[in-house]
Design brief:
The protein is mostly helical. 73% of the residues lie in helices and 0% in strands. It has one domain: Serine Threonine Protein Phosphatase 5, Tetratricopeptide repeat, CATH 1.25.40. The longest helix is centred in the last third of the chain and has 46 residues, at 158-203.
Length: 209
C-alpha cells in the first residue's frame, strides 16, 4: 500500500529566553535538510533535554526518526506532541504522520484512528482522507485473506473466545466510525461547494433591459 508522507520542519520564534533551545532546533533542521537524519535527531534530543515537553522539538524528532524508518519511536514522539500542545495545525500534522508510522508497522487500526484524528483537526486534509481510505481498504483486504477456521481444531477456552469477540467488535467499530467520518466530510464538502455556487450566482449582475 503506497502512502503519501508529509514531513514538515518547525522552528521557534526568536525569543531571548529560548535562544539556546531555538539554536538546537535550527541546527537540527539544518542537518535534516542535508539528509543527515541521525545528527538531526541528536540535536532535537538535546533540545528536549532542556525542555522535555516542547512539542516542536518532539515533532521534528519524530520526523527524523520517521526518515530513519524507526517508526515505533516516531509514533511515540508524535503522540507526545498531542500531550503537550493545543496548536491545531501541529496536532493535525502530528496525527497524520503518526498514522503513517503506525501503518508502516502494519498497525492498521492504530493508523486508521490517527488519520481520523488528523481529519478531525483539519477536515480539508485530502492526503489524510486518501490515506485513511487506503488503510481501510488494506484492513478489509487482510481480513478477507485470513484463513477460515478449521472446525476439527479444538475450540479455544471461553475467556479467549470472549477476548477475540471483543477485539473483533472493536475493530469493526473503528472501521465503521472511520467510514462514517469520511461520509460526513464528503457531505460537508458538497455543501460548501453548493454554498459557493449560490454565492457566485448572487454576485453575478443581471442585465438591465
Amino acid at each position: 500500500m503506497r502512502l503519501t508522507i508529509t514531513i514538515l520542519l518547525f522552528a521557534f520564534s526568536i525569543v531571548a529566553s529560548s535562544q539556546p533551545l531555538n539554536r538546537l532546533v535550527q541546527k537540527g533542521n539544518e542537518f535534516y535538510k542535508m539528509g543527515d537524519f541521525n545528527q538531526a535527531q541528536a540535536q532535537y534530543e538535546k533540545a528536549l533535554l532542556k525542555d522535555q515537553n516542547n512539542s516542536i522539538a518532539q515533532f521534528n524528532a519524530g520526523n527524523a526518526l520517521q526518515k530513519q524508518k524507526n517508526f515505533s519511536n516516531a509514533a511515540k514522539m508524535y503522540q507526545s506532541v498531542f500531550d503537550h500542545t493545543t496548536d491545531t495545525a501541529l496536532l493535525a500534522k502530528s496525527a497524520y504522520n503518526k498514522g503513517i508510522a503506525e501503518v508502516k508497522q502494519n498497525k492498521l487500526n492504530e493508523g486508521i484512528n490517527a488519520f481520523k484524528d488528523a481529519l478531525l483537526k483539519n477536515p480539508l486534509d485530502n492526503e489524510a482522507r486518501e490515506n485513511l481510505q487506503k488503510a481501510l481498504n488494506e484492513l478489509k483486504k487482510q481480513n478477507q485473506q485470513k484463513p477460515k477456521s478449521d472446525p476439527k481444531k479444538q475450540e479455544p477456552p471461553p475467556e479467549k473466545k470472549k477476548e477475540k469477540k471483543e477485539e473483533q467488535a472493536k475493530n469493526n467499530m473503528n472501521k465503521e466510525q472511520a467510514e462514517n467520518l469520511l461520509s460526513q466530510l464528503r457531505q460537508q464538502e458538497k455543501h460548501l461547494q453548493e454554498l459557493q455556487k449560490e454565492k457566485i450566482r448572487q454576485q453575478t449582475p443581471t442585465k438591465d433591459w
